[in-house]
C-alpha cells in the first residue's frame, strides 16, 4: 500500500504540478497486490477535471483503475488532525505486508516542516508528523509500521526529520537540496515498485 498525501498548494494552483504527478501515476498499470490511497487538498485551484478545490478527497488507484472513495469537508492539509485522520483511514481500511507513505508539497526542513496549505498558510511541523503517526501506530524500531516514508518536497533530508520518524519507518527518502517543482517521476518509481 502506498499512501500519498497530495497537498497541492501554489505548485498546483500556478503550474498544475500535482495534477501532472497524479497523471504520471495513472500511466502505471498496477497489479492486484499494489494499491495507492491518495488524499488531495491544500490548493486554491486544481488543473484537472477530477479534484475539486473546496473539499478533501480520497481516491484509490489499483488494478481496476481510479475511483473516488470519499469526499470530506474541506480541511487544512497543514493540520496534524487532517494528517492523522488519513493515516488512521489507511490503517483501518487496508491491510498490506509493506506500506509506503509519501508527502507531496513544499518542504522547509527542520525549522518549519512540510505540506503548506496555501489556503490557510499552515505547515505540518516535524512534531506534527511524529504526533500524527504515533496517534495511530505504536513506534517500534525493530518492526516499524512503514517500510518507507518519502518527502517529494524540498529540504527535508535532515537528522531532525529522520529522528521524528524513528520507529515509524524503516527508511526515509528526502532531498537535502531544493527539488524541481514537478517533483518525482511517479511513472518511474511506482513502475519500478510494480516490477518488484
Short synopsis of the structure:
The protein has 196 residues and is α/β, with parallel strands linked by helices.
Topology:
Blueprint: E1 2-7, H1 9-15, H2 17-26, E2 36-41, E3 56-62, E4 65-72, H3 80-93, E5 100-104, H4 109-112, E6 114-117, E7 122-124, H5 126-134, E8 146-152, H6 159-164, E9 169-173, H7 186-195
Parallel strand pairs: 1-2, 1-5, 5-8, 8-9
Antiparallel strand pairs: 2-3, 3-4, 6-7
Based on Cα principal axes, name the global outline.
globular
Radius of gyration: 15 Å
- Main sheet properties: 7 strands, mixed
Low-confidence stretches: none
Number of helices: 7
Average pLDDT: 96
Helix amount = 25-40%
**Secondary-structure element order, N to C:** EHHEEEHEHEEHEHEH
User: Which strand order spans the largest sheet, edge to edge or round the barrel?
Assistant: 4-3-2-1-5-8-9
- Proportion of β residues? 25-35%
Task: State the separation between the terminal residues, measured CA to CA.
Answer: 14 Å
Number of strands: 9
> Helices and strands: which structural class?
alpha/beta
Describe the protein's architecture and organization.
By secondary structure, the protein is α/β, with parallel strands linked by helices. The protein has seven helices and nine strands, in the order E-H-H-E-E-E-H-E-H-E-E-H-E-H-E-H. The protein has helices spanning 9-15, 17-26, 80-93, 109-112, 126-134, 159-164, 186-195, and strands spanning 2-7, 36-41, 56-62, 65-72, 100-104, 114-117, 122-124, 146-152, 169-173. The strands form two sheets. A seven-stranded mixed β-sheet has the order 4-3-2-1-5-8-9, with helices on one face. A two-stranded antiparallel ribbon has the order 6-7. A hairpin with a 2-residue loop joins strand 3 and strand 4 (65-72). It is globular, with a radius of gyration of 15 Å. The two termini are 14 Å apart. The mean pLDDT is 96.
Amino acid at each position: 500500500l502506498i499512501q500519498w498525501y497530495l497537498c497541492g498548494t501554489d505548485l498546483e494552483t500556478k503550474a498544475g504540478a500535482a495534477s501532472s504527478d497524479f497523471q504520471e501515476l495513472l500511466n502505471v498499470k498496477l497489479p492486484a497486490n499494489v494499491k495507492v490511497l491518495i488524499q488531495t487538498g491544500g490548493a486554491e485551484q486544481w488543473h484537472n477535471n477530477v479534484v475539486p478545490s473546496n473539499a478533501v478527497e480520497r481516491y484509490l488507484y489499483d488494478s481496476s483503475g481510479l475511483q473516488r472513495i470519499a469526499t470530506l469537508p474541506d480541511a487544512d492539509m497543514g493540520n496534524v488532525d487532517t494528517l492523522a485522520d488519513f493515516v488512521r483511514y489507511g490503517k483501518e481500511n487496508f491491510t498490506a505486508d509493506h506500506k509506503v507513505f509519501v508527502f507531496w508539497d513544499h518542504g522547509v526542513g527542520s525549522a518549519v516542516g512540510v505540506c503548506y496549505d496555501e489556503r490557510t498558510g499552515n505547515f505540518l511541523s516535524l512534531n506534527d508528523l511524529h504526533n500524527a503517526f504515533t496517534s495511530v501506530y505504536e513506534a517500534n524500531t525493530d518492526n516499524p509500521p512503514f517500510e518507507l516514508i518519502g518527502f517529494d518536497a524540498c529540504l527535508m533530508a535532515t537528522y531532525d526529520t529522520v529522528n521524528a520518524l524513528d520507529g515509524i519507518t524503516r527508511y526515509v527518502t528526502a532531498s537535502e537540496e531544493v527539488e524541481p517543482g514537478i517533483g518525482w517521476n511517479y511513472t518511474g518509481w511506482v513502475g519500478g515498485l510494480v516490477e518488484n
